[in-house]
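Input for the complex:
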Amino acid sequence: MAPIPYAELSSDELKAIRKELKKEYRAYQSQDLRLDMSRGKPSLDQLDLSMGLMQVLADGEDLTCEDGTDCRNYGVLDGIPEAKELLAEMGEVSPDEVIIYGNSSLNVMYDTISRSYTHGVMGSTPWCKLPHVKWLCPVPGYDRHFAITEYFGIEMINIPMTPNGPDMDLVEKLCAEDDAIKGIWCVPKYSNPQGYTYSDETVRRFARLEPAARDFRIYWDNAYNVHHLDFDHPDILLEILDECRKAGHPDLVYKFMSTSKIGFPGSGIACICTSPNNLVDIKRQLRVQTIGHDKVNQLRNVRYFKNIDGIMEHMKLHAQCLRPRFEIIEKTLHEGLDGLDIGEWTEPKGGYFISFNSMNGCAKDIVSRMKKAGVVMTPAGATYPNGKDPHDSNIRIAPSFPPLDDLALASKIFCCCVKLSASKKILMDRGDY
Amino acid sequence: MAPIPYAELSSDELKAIRKELKKEYRAYQSQDLRLDMSRGKPSLDQLDLSMGLMQVLADGEDLTCEDGTDCRNYGVLDGIPEAKELLAEMGEVSPDEVIIYGNSSLNVMYDTISRSYTHGVMGSTPWCKLPHVKWLCPVPGYDRHFAITEYFGIEMINIPMTPNGPDMDLVEKLCAEDDAIKGIWCVPKYSNPQGYTYSDETVRRFARLEPAARDFRIYWDNAYNVHHLDFDHPDILLEILDECRKAGHPDLVYKFMSTSKIGFPGSGIACICTSPNNLVDIKRQLRVQTIGHDKVNQLRNVRYFKNIDGIMEHMKLHAQCLRPRFEIIEKTLHEGLDGLDIGEWTEPKGGYFISFNSMNGCAKDIVSRMKKAGVVMTPAGATYPNGKDPHDSNIRIAPSFPPLDDLALASKIFCCCVKLSASKKILMDRGDY
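Predicted:
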């Protein structure tokens, strides 16, 4: 028998269903579970794949760069040449367009906004001297992005996401008419949390943007560039620096990447890729901030991954860890929710997340029910600026960390919570609860 | 025959000496030298001592912390417990007073000033909203410190250094009367460039400071805490956090340290040590800036050095590399300049530098002559804010990097340049040049 949408059931039928669901829920609770689906952390089997990173500079290995630089000593502000080459290959840019940083691209993004706030962008007025700074935030999006702009008191404007990327009509309109808008957060490939990849048309419209503010920059966080789940059918993203150059706007974009979700999270190397003008501007500050980042770790990453082929081989092994985790969740969601019309979700071909939309007004309730059953999710609302989801419907599911069995169980519990929450909502809306 | 001070020689005698000196100088020039005494970089033999750092996490070593944290994965904002313990031991503070950062204490200092500029200190007005911010700079001092305050447009006020530390009468007076003064740069042990260590009285007067600005902080860059040249007779520095607490000013100081000049420069771990109130204030920002610093590298440092005893044994080996380098320079300076009254220099018991003071108006000329003879020195003026030495007399000598033979030769050339410059100056002052 095909499932019937909850909204088409009578209140008595819904109440009967809720009775069964509550029994099921109490059974989960009695298991005293401690599961965590909150963050995009790699699993232990995935981490084990990178243990060779610890070996590659051991046994008296020479720590000298190709250009003769001794990586052990001070010096080299913007990264050793072979690290620039590796990340340039990964980002499909020229090594001349790259600065290698420390262990965290999030830190690079923070520092980039902080520098713009204290010193402006290529000679513009420092943002701290302006009465008001605004930012475009495709939603749902990445909570740590929003936390940075929030911290600097920047007003965030929600931009709806579509499977092709942000609503570009709105982006173009707002950018053109308001010079207080200084940037936009983008995760253009396997977006966090939906797993969407921006279409060619979206990328080209970004490259052609004519913002009123000359210090407007696109913050292009290409965190999941090589993070395919299916290497036979990967998403393809147009290279943005190249498109901006072609459109006559070479300075419009900062592209961020790292090896954090390739090797060990927190022990990788991060970078910014951007135009020569932007690089000059950035280095003027960078040389005051540091003598240089960790060159030994740069060398470690290069000696281990070697080149883009080495990275891709490695990422295929990652996919073997990640794909079954996505599949078990998607399978369980289909089994539990298909046909009920109480939730929908994305089925990404890469990245670290699934985006789930419940009925409006149910997300907080679902996450709270999950917590009481021993499963920690990303807080509801986290995918929106200031933690405020106007529909209270989006939930980020992070399948990467838990073992498969835990994920199977957690997804079943999730279906139970979604159904409990939706049935309650429908009954309340009818005045029948 | 005892040497006669240049000023007591007749102009003809000086001219005769200059003829010989020029011959000597041309002989050096003809050797086509490429020597570098500009920066406090460890020598290759010193770097070789730390190669074990590359071994200690190899061979399948478990990368789990004592508290069960997997160092390979995301998490832990302020450092793994054992890294806090190690640096707390080194800094004579409690692990609770420590945040572990990335590879560079300079970067931590930059970020600390940047945060104060954008967000204030423990609730104070952000410095970017103030009409004017000032800073106290003991001189001569560290060029990279001054570069940070200069970058943020902060007015720097010179404070004369003495062998006991900064002129505290002046520090106390200025701090008390001007609430635009927000901080002071200190290298309290084996200071850069003199190698002075602040006396107990100086440390206590710092702890008792009553600055007009409640967001005033002492920036205590304890870069050379364990960097003795003579482990039988090390300088002793009072612990400043403890003194501040005793004086009823627990929040007055930020102490910075790192393992950069213990293991590999640029690949160490840095930290800030400060009061609980300051730590809360800092972490409020830090958790926006990053998910966490490189825990694997923290573990690497801990597994290799183990504890303060391990660090001290290691630093004794460093001293064996560094001491002969200081000695050859000091010996050559004595042989070349004693009794001539044209220069004086410090003879530190630790750290990385010797401070040389020429006759007024000669430092730039000496460094320029050195360069033309193939020896790069730290630029004259670099030890003063904005690169302006009001006496044009201070030169920082960095003996740590070159091999002994090179240092012997470079010091001879240095004596020759000092004598050429001084004799010219005296003759010009007499109108006899």
